Amino acid sequence: MSLKNSYYVSSFFWSTLSKVLTAIVGFLSVPLLLGFYGKAEYGILAIATACNGYMQLLDLGMNIGTVRFFSQWRAEGKNELINRVARTNITFYGLIAIVNILGLVGLALWGEGLFSVTHEQFLLLRTCLLIIVLFSVLSWETTTFNQLLIADKQMAFTMQMQCIITVLKGLLVAMVLLFKLPLTTYFFFLTGVLTLLLIPYIIRCRKYNLINSIRPATYWNDFKVVITFSLSLFLLSLFQSTATQSRPILLSMFASNGATAVTDFRIIEVVPQMIIMIGGTFSGMFLPKTSEMVARKDEKAIKEFAYKWTTMTTIVVACLCFPVMLCTNEILTAYVGASYAHLSVWLLIWTITVLIQMHTTPGNALVLAYGKTKLLVQVTSVACVCSMILNVVLCKYFEVGSAIIAYFLYVCTIIGLYYVVFYKKLLHLSRLKLFLCFIKPTLVGSVLCVIVNFVPISIDIFAGLNERIAFLLICGIKSLIWFLPFVLVLKMLKILDLKSLKN
Q: How far is 329 from 332, CA to CA, in rounded Å?
């Protein structure tokens, strides 16, 4: 089976490659930039990134909503409708960019009192925020063309472009070290690199006639159906993003030293985010397919999809999470030094949270395809508020740990909703069967994880090697000892069926 003949395989291959490259570049960039700029300055960079991430809520849920409708309309042959809405999207994102600019400028000019940083640190933060402003319009306009490509099942191409961008970001880090670039110069080029996607996306969309013109338009009546659906997703995105993006922001406000706490957060964030990025590959490639299934009312395909891909998603994420659980201390020591090893318990809890969170990805894609998001929004809002309150309350006791504990509460609440309501009442699926799809590979991985922990692997074995290299080798050995029996046991128990994926 060739990559070209399989949407799932090609999308997963290129998405995974993109995420792995992103993870590798991010993994290497953090200690290099942290060592070059120092903990305080790097913390400012992290705060600026977090503020910009939160501004992405201005999307109003349009990204997911548009992909859903574009996929549905393409299946129905309504290409002219897609064109009108896409051109209106260009206008919409132009307006959003203006609001984004005003918000960041306001924060840059009058937001000093919001952050637990020195005046000098805020001046640096102000410059970074204004740099984001410079590229806001181009960055937002890229979104429309990305939506068209994904709806046309060209995710592989978008991920190929992401690979190129990631390589450029890695080269930029090398330039920082080689030419000793100031933080603001680095951030300027980093932000600018991300806008380069606009050009190949436009060319690709025009080549495949996905849009007949890139001139903005105002077909608001056609646009209304997308924005109406997306507004419910906006509220969902609002609370989801608040639960995630607010964590470093709250740390910067309520921790005793905001810049230092955010730096600790960004250090341990790298590995869980890598797992989420790779797992999120499924989410991106599932939505166009689930939208088609729902449009056809193919209940058999929906059920087969839900059970098969809950199992496969769990297995993939488990292969990423359990090696991390085995080696949290070694990873942090090799990554940023022994002085950060005390963060290992929080990395462990965060990784467990991600494992639990990601297995509902197929179910989430189906819920979005049905458009039944009202209850999800309500529960997410409550979970988000409770999570934020818990983060603030625990901040003075656990510092960075408060953000991880609060997020664990948030994730468990949302997953409870899926099992109690969505799986049975909306999707008409067996909750027990879905739970078993998750718990079987998880139990296998957990048992093997406990066993591997008793294998005596001491750093003394690698005496004479650099300490960080030695710890990396230990991570590799432990991961391999766990991985091979994991795959073997899954195949023996017929939990992992590679042949079924070819269909």
A: 5
